[in-house]
Design goal:
alpha/beta; TIM Barrel; 8-stranded parallel barrel; two-stranded antiparallel ribbon; 12 strands
Length: about 290
């Protein structure tokens, strides 16, 4: 299976020569996305939503992939743990990749289960050498089954994980140093954690391997007293566009920027306007 899936992803991959700007696929946004594919360069689909999907839904997803580049994004694998990831879930991912032939796939650097329990949340692992090693073992296992390594995403948190001996930047850099895949850099998560834990987001970006960026997420959240909740229910705030401009200024590689929205959906024109703001931020960073 690994070889076949790797070939499928390789066949779907494109030689990117320009920055691209896309949006996360949600059924509530389907009509607006299809009506504006000329303004959307790539669509990101939540893979877990299709693991047990009907043949009709799979066919619809294949139709979408035939019209625009598609990437699959996972939310439930939980590779950032000393507990091995579920082989069944990786197999489901591999089968879906084989059917859809996306240009890439990704997962969160989070832990979601342990001791036979699933917490139903993307949690930050204790940032230490044990979780670095466990994460790398899980990513290697997933890549072996799927046939190609995932992009991995930094996550937001409301609490600083206990038992940590590394900063977030140190932990992320150690994972990326030994990972075969690229980085899915979520800039709202950087902004959120910088606010929640009092560090400089620009220094954070200077401390991680930006040359390994494979994709970028932008989104919006809401304040909770002195913290930010990364809920994807609000427009992208200005500080995130500023961080995007900063990243664009520090890498000459083409960037793929994806807008995430998970509820309280505005008119598609509003989301397209946010994509245009992202384009402008990258243009300004390239000057």
């Amino acid at each position: 299976m690994a070889a076949a899936v790797a070939a499928a992803v390789g066949a779907a991959a494109v030689e990117m020569k320009k920055d691209r700007f896309g949006i996360g696929w949600r059924p509530q946004l389907a009509a607006g996305i299809f009506a504006n594919l000329d303004k959307i360069d790539i669509v990101e689909v939540i893979a877990d939503d299709y693991f047990d999907a009907s043949s009709r839904k799979i066919l619809a997803l294949r139709t979408l992939a035939a019209q625009t580049p598609v990437t699959l994004h996972g939310v439930g694998l939980g590779p950032a743990s000393t507990v091995p990831v579920e082989t069944k879930r990786i197999d489901q991912f591999a089968r879906l990749i084989g059917m859809i032939e996306p240009e890439s796939w990704s997962e969160h650097l989070a832990w979601v289960r342990g001791g036979g329990l699933d917490i139903g949340h993307l949690a930050s692992p204790p940032r230490n050498s044990a979780s670095v090693n466990g994460t790398l073992e899980n990513l290697h296992a997933a890549a072996k089954i799927v046939g190609t390594p995932p992009l991995v995403e930094n996550i937001a948190s409301l609490i600083d994980p206990p038992l940590s001996t590394l900063t977030e930047a140190q932990w992320l850099s150690q994972v990326m140093q030994h990972s075969a895949g690229g980085l899915l850099l979520d800039l709202h998560n950087v902004y959120t954690n910088a606010t929640n834990f009092g560090f400089d987001p620009y220094q954070f970006l200077d401390s991680i391997p930006l040359q390994q960026i494979g994709s970028i997420h932008i989104a919006g959240g809401r304040p909770i007293e002195d913290r930010i909740l990364d809920d994807h229910l609000h427009d992208v705030p200005d500080p995130v566009y500023d961080l995007l401009r900063y990243v664009a200024a520090r890498t000459d590689k083409p960037l793929t920027v994806i807008l995430e929205r998970d509820g309280k959906y505005p008119p598609i024109a509003s989301l397209l306007a946010q994509l245009e703001q992202a384009r402008e931020a990258v243009r300004r960073g390239r000057v």
